[in-house]
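Session log. Operator J.P. requested a structure for one protein chain; no other inputs attached. Running the standard single-chain path with token output.
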Amino acid sequence: AMVFYFKARPDAGDYTIFMGLDKFENEELIKYGFPEDVWFHVDKMSSAHVYLRLHKGQGFDDINEGVLEDCAQLVKANSIQGNKVNNVDVVYTPWSNLKKTASMDVGQVGFHNSKMVRTIRVEKRVNDIVNRLNKTKVERTPDLRAEREAVNAAERAERKQHLREKKKREEIERLEKERQAEMRSYKGLMVTDKMTSNKDIASSNKSLQELEDDFM
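Structure written below.
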């Protein structure tokens, strides 16, 4: 799969924007996206599928205005129809909201939740933005599946590590509780032992005394 990578405006932070060469690449991108990916498309016209990869822990609403503008300009510039006209709408949504059913054509996509789809109006093409983005363009043929699987494996390892640490913490807590309980019961034993032994001594002495009395 041929994928084009662009760098968003540097002052906004280190963000990568990418898009597939054609509808077949789009299929791959839909299939092997990351949870941090946000999908952009020109509304009601054919266009490239453009993705923005957010940083871990960032949400859909955390997208910087400038980065949003970069994505919208790039997607408009990569729409045969959309590039020629002013005032186009660009829709965007998290990758996880993209829905693919068997009846859909190659490259075609729907949404699980329409409330998760936002629209941004692009008045006109801003050549400065498009040219700046095109200067950062890199073509790669990534193994999208392998990249996705590597992320899955890393996430699994992280979850396992968290689980191990949690179990360890729980085990330490359990041992500490047991130790505390032992201490408590030991203190209790000491007290009851003392009492019993004194009483026992007293009672056995008494009976010895009595025995001697009886004997005499």
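Operator note: The chain has a mean pLDDT of 86.
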